[in-house]
Amino acid sequence: MNRQSRFSSLLLAVAVPVTLLSFTACSGKMSKSDCEKADFYEIGMKDGKKGKDGSRLADITATCSSHGVTVAEDKYTYGRKVGLTEFCDASQAQKDAKKGITDSICAKEAVPPYQTAYSKAVIDEREAKAKEIKELQARKEKLEKREGVLQNQINTYDSQTGAVNPSQPVQQ
What are phi and psi of 111, to 5 degrees? Predict the structure, then answer.
């Protein structure tokens, strides 16, 4: 076997179990071996990066406890908080503010960068809506003025023809 083949074999030997472990950890159906080998910090971080709430820890703990394995809950929790700082970024704050979401996982977990960005995004959204209202009011005023001009023209036509309303025939 050449050097590249050995590297590929080694990579597969490591990648496949790690992928399987990640899959089984995500599905909540962890075997005893999975529980014993699990990197709970890494599992927590992946959950945090996906914006998952902490309820999954209870499922993992129950599954691993049924196998007699103690879960390092502190490592999972810390990893999840680290992952949440990546998920709960300024972009997520802007999305939540635009949609009017006030009870997101990021808000509940009080992730500092998110909170700052969310506050700014809410202010920006408010200002944008206030500006839109002003523009709509200005358009409304123009439309009302235009309506008045048209109504005056109709009244002039009616007085010239003697018509009282459009449904009456014009008198000759």
Answer: -75, 115
Please give the backbone phi and psi of residue 146, each rounded to the nearest 5 degrees, phi first: -65, -40
In the chain, what are the domain boundaries? Answer: 1-87, 88-160
**From first to last of its 172 residues, what are the pLDDT tens digits of the chain?**
555 555 455 444 444 344 434 444 444 588 999 999 999 999 999 999 999 988 899 999 999 999 999 999 999 999 999 999 999 999 999 999 999 988 899 988 888 889 999 999 999 999 999 999 999 999 999 999 999 999 999 989 888 887 666 555 545 4
For the chain, report the end-to-end CA distance as a whole number of angstroms.
Answer: 108
pTM listed for this prediction:
0.59
In the numeric block, which tokens belong to residue 93? 């704050």
- Asked if residue 120 lies in contact with residue 96, where contact means CB atoms within 8 angstroms, the answer is no
| Coil, helix or strand at residue 57 | helix
Long-range Cβ contacts of 162-168 (<8 Å, 24+ apart)? none
Residue 85: φ, ψ to 5°? -65, -25
Size (the chain), residues:
172
